[in-house]
Amino acid sequence: MERLTKAAALVLALLMAAFLAYIFAGSTPPGVKRPKLSLAATAGNAKVKFASYKDCRKCHPQIYKEWERSWHRMAWTDPWVQLSWGCYRDQECRACHLPRPLMEDGKKPRLVARSEDEDKESGINCLTCHYSPQGILAPRGLTVNMQDGCYPIYYEDIATDAQCWECHPNQYDDWRLSSFFKEGKGCKACHMDEVERPIVPDGPVRKTRVHFWKGAHTYTFIKTGYDFSVELGDDGVKVRVANTKSGHLFPAERHNRALWVEVTFYDEKGKQAGEMAKWIIREGSNQPRNMKLMEIKPDSAVERVFPYPTASGSVKVMLKFDYFYSNEDQYTRVLEDPPPYRFSGKKPAGKKE
Ligand code: HEC
Ligand code: HEC
Ligand code: HEC
Ligand code: HEC
Ligand code: HEC
User: Fold this and answer.
1) Tell me: the pLDDT tens digits for 107-154?
2) Ligand 5: distance of its center to the CA of 250 in Å?
3) 278 beta partners
4) What letter would DSSP give residue 42?
5) Distance, CA 78 to ligand 2 centroid (Å)?
6) 160 vs 109: CA distance, rounded Å
7) Do 175 and 66 share a domain, yes or no?
8) Residue 24 maps to a domain
9) Using a 6 Å cutoff on CB, does residue 218 contact ligand 5?
């Protein structure tokens, strides 16, 4: 018995090692051809010595302010992350939640954990995405007088969405199967709003992007991700949730989110008819038993019909979204709460004509 447990532990350790090797190997996202960093634009200028993300604030105050409020900045201080990392080897978690600059070696992006002593309040910071020993990695390669600036060099992974793949491989892979990929609408198009403004206080107006990555922590943004409809059919109330507007699975995250529908019928006197029905579309995967992973795939929908318990009355339908961290730790946001729908002259379930 003990030997069996040891064998299982060994297999698990090997699987874990393979997984980590995959994560930390600095591989390439599907569909991306990774050219070498172009140094042409900055030949001889590679004397960028940025010790800290704080150095960027002076010249890019607006972007800095946006990033400060973002969940990338909070990726390590986030109370939910702090609560959950204790039960793992923190090294693993820090590679994404408290990383060293991805391109620190100037060759290939890699996820390497930084120590908790180094700017832990900044989680994923400017250097994580923009630093390389050759120069600041940039989406365009602007040609203003860089002697006073930061010697940016064009870097394809920043210009495209390839950089997001390093830490978000799930969403990236799912997005590649969605219609948004075919339309050329990527992560940034939905998650970093486009604005026209100067990048530096007295600089020229440019088309640029807000450094706040709206996601599941932003209620109004979740609501842009799906279509919800309720239809009073002959046999029952048809509830439908369609994932036509988010670029990946809905919910996008695979562990800590749950999605469900509550349906309650009332008779004509307003008294509840039957039990409230709870349709779990996606359950928090932390739940050990009865695990259901049923995120809605891009460009598809789920629907269910709830039979009428009475011939006439009303029905209340709600769509709810949980941040599900453990059985004790979960909080709910109501996404849809339309007024009750009235119905009459229906055929109640189980009753003969
Ligand atoms: C491959 C990169 C990666 C690694 C490694 C990683 N995470 Fe994450 N984590 C993410 C991303 C990306 C998110 C954002 C949600 C999503 O897409 O999954 C996230 C979200 C979370 C959240 C939810 C935060 C919130 O506010 O809802 C928690 C908690 C968390 N991670 C804990 C951990 C712990 C603990 C570990 C170590 C065992 C870990 N993570 C390792 C990338 C990673
Ligand atoms: C001394 C001022 C200064 C500092 C400090 C500075 N920058 Fe810049 N940065 C500039 C100027 C000037 C531009 C060009 C703006 C323009 O042309 O509109 C620029 C442009 C950029 C660009 C866009 C270039 C492109 O081609 O798309 C990026 C990215 C960038 N900076 C990142 C950073 C980061 C990250 C830091 C901190 C490590 C930083 N900068 C620190 C002055 C500075
Ligand atoms: C067409 C718009 C669209 C595109 C394209 C898109 N997303 Fe999203 N994304 C959303 C919406 C809406 C949500 C909020 C609903 C949800 O959480 O599923 C979201 C949620 C997320 C979340 C938050 C998950 C959580 O629960 O914390 C992450 C991370 C994310 N997207 C990453 C990406 C990445 C990476 C890409 C590119 C590969 C991408 N998204 C492409 C619309 C989009
Ligand atoms: C999670 C990665 C990430 C982090 C963290 C990040 N950036 Fe960026 N940054 C990007 C991406 C991606 C773009 C390209 C946007 C685009 O395509 O217009 C960008 C663009 C820029 C630009 C050029 C604006 C433009 O549109 O030409 C500047 C300047 C910049 N970032 C500065 C910063 C500063 C300063 C910080 C820290 C306060 C920071 N970034 C943090 C990913 C990041
Ligand atoms: C170094 C790893 C890393 C990179 C690179 C990265 N992310 Fe993230 N991202 C994370 C982690 C970790 C979180 C979870 C933070 C938390 O909730 O505490 C996250 C959270 C998010 C969220 C969720 C915000 C919310 O409200 O829950 C979105 C959206 C997102 N990232 C989009 C992007 C996009 C788009 C890119 C590419 C431009 C990108 N990320 C690049 C690690 C990364």
Assistant:
1) 889 999 998 888 889 999 999 999 988 888 989 866 555 556 787 888
2) 16
3) 262
4) G
5) 28
6) 14
7) yes
8) no
9) yes
* Angle, CA of 49, 94 and 218, to the nearest 5°: 95
Residue nearest to atom 3 of ligand 3 (CA): 247
Q: Are residues 102 and 204 in the same domain?
A: yes
Q: Using the mean position of ligand 2's atoms as its centre, give its distance from the Cα of residue 172 in Å.
A: 27
The answer to whether residues 172 and 40 belong to one domain is yes
- Residue 111 tokens read as 């996820």
- The residue-averaged pLDDT of 223-249 equals 96
Nearest-CA neighbor of 190 among 247, 134, 143, 140?
A: 247
Q: Say whether both 67 and 205 belong to one domain.
A: yes
Q: How far apart, in Å, do the first and last CA atoms of the chain sit?
A: 61
Nearest residue CA, atom 42 of ligand 4?
Answer: 129
Q: Give me the number of domains the chain comprises.
A: 2
Please determine, for residue 21, whether its predicted confidence score (pLDDT) is greater than 80.
Answer: no
Which pLDDT belongs to residue 88? 62
Mutate which of 200, 207, 209 to test ligand 2's pocket (most atoms within 8 Å of Cβ)?
Answer: 200
**Shared domain check, 161 and 72:** yes
- Choice from 81, 168, 193, 218 to test ligand 5 binding pocket (greatest atom count within 8 A of CB): 168
- Domain of residue 40, residue span: 30-209
Rounded CA separation 203/19 (Å): 45
User: What does pLDDT average to over the chain?
Assistant: 85
Do 72 and 183 share a domain, yes or no? yes
246 pocket-lining for ligand 3 (C-beta < 6 Å) = yes
Integer Cα distance of 51 and 44 in angstroms: 20
Which ligand 5 atom is nearest residue 99's CA? 1
